[in-house]
């Protein structure tokens, strides 16, 4: 761990008590980064899992729909670890309905958590990133968008709008930091095998009386040509790559990990 690439850095990953966020946090921790977790539900188990990797870890339960709580979280991270070197904007929620039936309060919540929270966290992280490395600047902002930041699906108006907006925010942030040691990029996954998605597969298999493998094929076959899930660990490995020396001039990209979904 002493020679790990990110030793001495601190990563804050929003929405990281389970699923994609926790997978990314673990991969960053394996490279030596101290971790600030955020999310709802049980946080003691993921916190212990991160600490078992030999790094320091802390938790802040900010509601990512509330700018004041995001500010408190960023202050907590700065007080605990000095500054946020790596910001992973992952927090997200979903609701499915046709436009004319979409509850306005669900629209507002999805835009707040899936898009505005990334803006607030980024604006608060960038000043310390600019001051890093003796004023040369160093930082990594990684926005977890979605293939729905590039293409649309019916009945997902708010999610698609937010993720398209997140890709746009990524590009603007990258341009504004282009001459510094700060980079900003987006990762755009397709289907990711999280516990929540596994429950969907299990439910489909039970409802139709088919095997888990067939239920998986049906789910992926609608959109993802590879018929293969992306894993949270693979997303984490891409985040690590963005943090490496090889990623220092990758700026403003929306990097698909979607099994060919957007290539169709």
Brief summary:
The chain is α/β, with parallel strands linked by helices.
How would you describe what is shown here?
- The protein folds into two domains: 10-191 and 231-263, Rossmann fold; 193-229.
- The chain is α/β, with parallel strands linked by helices.
- It contains eight helices and seven strands; from the N terminus they run E-H-E-H-E-H-E-H-E-H-E-H-H-H-E.
- The chain has a seven-stranded parallel sheet, with helices on both faces.
**Alpha-carbon distance between the two ends:** 42 Å
Structural class: alpha/beta
Shape: globular
- Uncertain segments are none
SSE map:
Elements: E1 10-13, H1 19-30, E2 34-38, H2 44-51, E3 57-60, H3 67-81, E4 86-89, H4 104-131, E5 139-144, H5 157-176, E6 182-189, H6 195-208, H7 212-221, H8 232-243, E7 254-257
Parallel strand pairs: 1-2, 1-4, 2-3, 4-5, 5-6, 6-7
Helix pairs in contact: 1-8, 3-4, 4-5, 6-7
Structure characteristics:
2 domains, alpha/beta
């Amino acid at each position: 761990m002493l020679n790990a690439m990110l030793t001495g850095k601190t990563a804050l990953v929003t929405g990281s008590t389970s699923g994609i966020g926790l997978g990314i946090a673990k991969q960053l921790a394996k490279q030596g980064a101290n971790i600030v977790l955020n999310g709802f539900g049980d946080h003691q188990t993921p916190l212990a899992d991160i600490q078992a990797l030999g790094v320091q870890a802390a938790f802040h339960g900010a509601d990512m729909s509330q700018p004041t709580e995001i500010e408190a979280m960023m202050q907590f991270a700065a007080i605990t670890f000095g500054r946020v070197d790596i910001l992973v904007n992952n927090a997200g929620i979903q609701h499915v309905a046709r436009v004319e039936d979409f509850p306005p309060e669900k629209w507002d919540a999805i835009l707040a958590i899936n898009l505005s929270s990334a803006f607030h966290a980024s604006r608060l992280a960038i000043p310390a990133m600019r001051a890093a490395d003796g004023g040369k600047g160093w930082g990594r902002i990684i926005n977890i968008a979605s293939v729905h930041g590039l293409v649309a699906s019916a009945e997902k108006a708010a999610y698609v709008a937010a993720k398209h907006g997140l890709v746009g925010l990524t590009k603007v942030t990258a341009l504004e930091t282009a001459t510094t040691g700060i980079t900003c990029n987006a990762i755009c996954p397709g289907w990711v095998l999280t516990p929540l998605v596994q429950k969907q597969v299990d439910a489909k298999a039970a409802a139709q009386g088919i095997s888990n493998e067939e239920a998986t094929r049906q789910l992926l076959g609608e959109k993802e040509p590879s018929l293969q899930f992306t894993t949270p660990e693979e997303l984490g490995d891409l985040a690590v790559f963005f943090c490496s020396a090889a990623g220092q001039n990758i700026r403003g990209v929306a990097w698909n990990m979607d099994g060919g979904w957007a290539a169709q």
